[in-house]
């Protein structure tokens, strides 16, 4: 497993503690949430890059969603 040791400035750590407290979280839980959000954001950005490279537009995705919703609605009766 890679080393997770990092050096953090005292001001950065205090700011993180303040944000965690404002969110009603422990510092550890706040860090977990922040990292999860960063991973999700990166995955979303990566998917957007792939869509653009494939020529998939927002309009196409909206149309496909509408088509699938119509199929689901018909199947439900």
Describe the structure.
The protein has 77 residues and is an all-alpha fold. Helix content is 78%, strand content 0%. It has three helices and no strands. It has helices spanning 10-22, 27-54, 58-76. α1 packs across α2 (27-54). The longest helix is centred in the middle third of the chain and has 28 residues, at 27-54. The model has no long low-confidence stretch (mean pLDDT 91).
Radius of gyration: 21 Å
Query: In which range does the helix fraction lie?
Result: over 70%
What is the mean pLDDT? Answer: 91
Distance between the termini: 52 Å
Give the helix/strand layout:
Elements: H1 10-22, H2 27-54, H3 58-76
Helix pairs in contact: 1-2
Please give a quick description of this structure.
With 77 residues, the chain is mostly helical.
Question: What keywords describe this structure?
Answer:
77 residues, mainly alpha
């Amino acid at each position: 497993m890679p080393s997770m040791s990092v050096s953090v400035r005292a001001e950065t750590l205090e700011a993180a503690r303040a944000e965690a407290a404002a969110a009603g979280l422990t510092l550890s839980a706040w860090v977990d949430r922040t990292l999860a959000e960063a991973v999700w954001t990166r995955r979303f950005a990566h998917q957007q890059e792939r869509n653009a490279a494939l020529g998939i537009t927002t309009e196409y995705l909206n149309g496909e969603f509408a088509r699938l919703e119509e199929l689901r609605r018909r199947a439900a009766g």
